[in-house]
Amino acid sequence: MSLSIGEKKENVDGYMVSNSSIGFGMSAASMTATWIWAASFYAAASSGYKYGLSGALHYGFWGALMILFIYPFGRRFRALAPQAHTLAEIMHARHGRSSQLILAGSNILGSCISLMVNFTAAGTLVDMLTPLSFIQGVVLAGLGVLSYTLWSGFRSSVMTDFGQLIAMILAAVIIIPMIYFTLGGSELFVEGIHRLTPEQASFFSKTAFLEQGAPYFVAVLAYAIGNQTIAQRLFAVREDLIKPSFITATIGYGSIVIGLGMIGVLALLAGIEPMDGDLNNLIPQMASTYLPPFMIGMFFIMVLGSLSSTADSDLAALSAIVMTDIYGKNIAKGKPKASTMLWVGRMTMIVATVVGVVFASLKLDILTMLIFVGALWGTIVFPVIASLYWPRVNNFAFTGAVLAGFAMFLVVRFGWLPMEGAVGIFFELLSSVGGGVVIGLMAFGFLGRTAGLIAGTLAMAAMLPLSLNFLRDYPVLLSSLTAYGVSTLVCVGLSLRNQKRFNFDRIAERVVAFQRSPH
């Protein structure tokens, strides 16, 4: 597929965003395939196994909702900068270098971690289902993805996403029911229900919501705004097709991932213990134990398809960031050479693949990494959105908000201060503000400013009495909401001091295509 679309002289803008001309089917399929990554397979099943029925639902539902969440803001991004390649590029036009590099740097970090996670998952799968070792599996995954993405970049990623999604859907429709019936079908629920705690057996588990659902909800909100793989597809799809593409991707993602999460629930009901106590082994263990050889091959294709679709998206995202935000805007000062940009993009992919393969050997927990990176991006969400709606936000407010939010997140997440007494109450108040911000932004995106302010205020007021002397027991959620709250308060406070108004028409003048046609 990649060879069929390759061109001898690639167009720079086509290499990064397909000249903003992707149609409905390709766009929706690519968004769905990209959002279904290693975490969607391994962590969804882990969540179902750990938290039971509501764990599987939390993971799929909130992730799907965040795909839907981005489209109203995405239309604003495209209206301001029709020819954008990265969100950081828009921030450069809005604020300047420091805001741009903060966003670009966070995206580089996030995509490298994502590559590492996907290569780790591929290595685990190969190690369990083939005679090859974990390291060999990691290396093969890296080389495989690089081989078809290197030449045509983002265009290759989108084209192969379509085929990978079809393979994933077909495999999931067959494999998940087969595991269910092999384990006993409906009798499994009757015989295994005693293995579930009351919380695991409930669709409305408080523990699952506070430890999994709410932190993941907050994290993927940040992913929706801060992740270049999502923004890249937003900039690539035809502007009139943004809404239907994202709605379709929302439904597709939720359906597949909730089904994957139920594999963890089935393992819990059957009393299966994860190999070596590692929840990341649960899905390949279930496949190798309960599927016939042919279906193991189908499963192998399904998982590798999901890993590859996200890994190639990360490579395309990293190349676009380095091409646009590092070389194009800073090194070449807005006057880059097309041939040099393509060379920079391809070298970025090679270096990123090596980095991902090397660090994949750490085999870190996927669910923890997902929440951690999402919380890092949480400090950026409000400053980014506010910058593109409120003309008083300036570079100082943006930078100060992100740095302050990130610092306070670290304090809470790593326990640098004891969450007791006045200190605990202080951070719980900040987290209540963060909760109001999350709800307010969602309402603002779909219903407008007034609805956003009302919903955010009501959510914050409702959270205040509930969070005191309570949220400190849930450090993941507390740290994530604190990041939102602090960055919002600092951004608003510093912006109110600024009396200058930014003319948003200047963004489109500053963000332009690098190359009109291949030459």
Describe this protein's structure.
GO terms for molecular function: symporter activity. This is Sodium:solute symporter family protein. It holds the Pfam family SSF. It comes from Comamonas suwonensis. With 519 residues, this protein is mainly alpha-helical. The protein has two domains: 19-364, Sodium/glucose cotransporter; 365-518, no CATH class. Helices cover 77% and strands 0% of the residues. The protein is built from 22 helices and no strands. It has helices at residues 2-5, 12-17, 24-35, 38-51, 53-80, 87-94, 97-129, 134-149, 154-182, 186-192, 206-226, 228-236, 242-270, 282-290, 293-331, 338-360, 366-387, 395-413, 421-447, 449-467, 475-496, 505-510. The longest helix has 39 residues, at 293-331. The two termini are 23 Å apart.
Q: What's the CATH superfamily of the largest domain, by name?
A: Sodium/glucose cotransporter
| CATH class category of the largest domain | Mainly Alpha
What is the 3D shape? globular
Helix tally equals: 22
Q: Measured on Cα atoms, how large is the radius of gyration?
A: 22 Å
Which SSEs are present, and which pair or pack?
Layout: H1 2-5, H2 12-17, H3 24-35, H4 38-51, H5 53-80, H6 87-94, H7 97-129, H8 134-149, H9 154-182, H10 186-192, H11 206-226, H12 228-236, H13 242-270, H14 282-290, H15 293-331, H16 338-360, H17 366-387, H18 395-413, H19 421-447, H20 449-467, H21 475-496, H22 505-510
Helix pairs in contact: 3-9, 3-12, 3-13, 3-15, 4-5, 4-13, 5-11, 5-13, 6-7, 7-8, 7-15, 7-16, 7-17, 8-15, 8-16, 9-13, 9-15, 10-13, 11-17, 11-21, 15-16, 17-18, 17-21, 18-21, 19-20, 19-21
Main location: membrane
Membrane topology: Multi-pass membrane protein
Catalytic activity: L-proline(in) + Na(+)(in) = L-proline(out) + Na(+)(out)
